[in-house]
Specification:
The complex is a heterodimer of chains A (99) and B (234). With 99 residues, chain A is mainly alpha-helical. Chain A has 4 helices and no strands. Chain A is extended, with a radius of gyration of 19 Å. Chain B starts with a helix and ends with a helix. Classes of the chains: A mainly alpha (99), B mainly alpha (234).
């Protein structure tokens, strides 16, 4: 059992922040009505964060990553998550091998 | 059969077909966690206390950056802020729970528990045991999957050979697809994606996710403000 003060501190931090998100929603936001602009901004956050992470990882690394990312998106339109992960990994490995 | 047992089985039956997602997601999370320098114990502990895969993976991406504490918090806030919206909605449907049941539900809130409770609420009252029938299997899989992924991930010497470095991109794509399909998501995705790429190329090594995300959120706010204006002045 290995433990490291740095890792444990950051794990605690992520734990507290994540719990705070759930708790703030239940305690505060369940009682407050958001306006149309702020609720649109809140609702857009997951897609904005996910895309900001995905786009550079797929489009600014090289051809294998671009092809594998595109393949994963196309497959994901129909297939479940496990298949998307396997396709992303398999295509990137194959393309790196070719290139 | 008691009512509680029936409710638990109802939740269990609904969640069974989708359990392949947490199985693969937790396994990859464990493998990536040890590749990033966590021990198998730390990886499993993190899954137990955080219980939010996207946030765990995004935080690990910036784990060793300068000012990691700030970037790790930003990562956790930005991807987990959806829990605030989900909890706000669920809270209104579980006022009849005991306080312990309510806080257990909120502390372990997850995407399937939220989504299936919303659907259940359309036809009948949501019970604690129904939500637990959904959350318990996911939580257990999440723990054991992380541990298994961490133990096996230790054996992999070169993660790029297996495409492990790209696995989380696949996970994030799978997580993003339902959002991308929603109406109004395209301009938000275009804004955040293009700004994130520009920020990365400009040298914002770890902040580019946050910068891109803010651009997407700003775009959503602008579009909503314009819609509100159009409604007022037809």
């Amino acid at each position: 059992m290995t433990m490291d003060a740095y890792n444990l501190t950051l794990i605690l931090l992520v734990t507290l922040v994540t719990f705070a998100m759930r708790a703030v929603g239940a305690v505060v936001m369940a009682r407050v009505e958001l306006g149309p602009v702020s609720s649109a901004a809140f609702e857009a956050m997951p897609v904005a964060v996910l895309t900001a992470f995905i786009a550079p990882a797929v489009l600014s690394q090289g051809l294998p990553e671009a092809i594998a990312g595109t393949a994963a998106v196309l497959v994901g339109l129909r297939a479940p998550m496990a298949v998307v992960i396997v396709v992303a990994m398999a295509v990137v490995v194959a393309m790196r091998h070719v290139g | 059969m008691t009512a509680a047992k029936q409710e638990f089985l109802d939740g269990l039956r609904l969640v069974l077909p989708i359990l392949v997602a947490p199985v693969s997601f937790s396994f990859i999370t464990g493998a990536i966690s040890v590749q990033k320098g966590l021990s198998a114990f730390e990886a499993t502990l993190m899954s137990a206390t955080v219980f939010a895969g996207g946030g765990q993976l995004l935080a690990l991406e910036v784990w060793y950056e300068p000012q990691a504490w700030l970037l790790v918090m930003l990562a956790a806030v930005s991807i987990n802020v959806r829990f605030a919206l989900q909890a706000a909605s669920v809270q209104r449907k579980i006022n009849h729970f005991t306080p312990v049941q309510r806080w257990l539900t909120i502390a372990t809130l997850n995407d399937p528990a939220w989504g299936m409770s919303e659907i259940r609420h359309l036809s009948r009252q949501v019970s604690f045991w129904f939500i637990f029938g959904i959350t318990v299997p996911i939580y257990l899989i999440w723990e054991f999957g992380t541990l298994a992924g961490a133990l096996l991930g230790k054996l992999i010497d070169d993660p790029t050979k297996l495409g492990l470095d790209f696995a989380f991109v696949g996970i994030f794509i799978a997580l993003a697809l339902p959002f991308w399909k929603r109406s109004g998501a395209v301009p938000v995705a275009l804004a955040s994606g293009s700004v994130a790429i520009a920020a990365k190329l400009a040298g914002f090594s770890a902040m580019y996710v946050f910068i891109g995300a803010m651009a997407g959120v700003a775009m959503a706010g602008l579009l909503a403000a314009r819609r509100a204006k159009q409604v007022q002045t037809p």
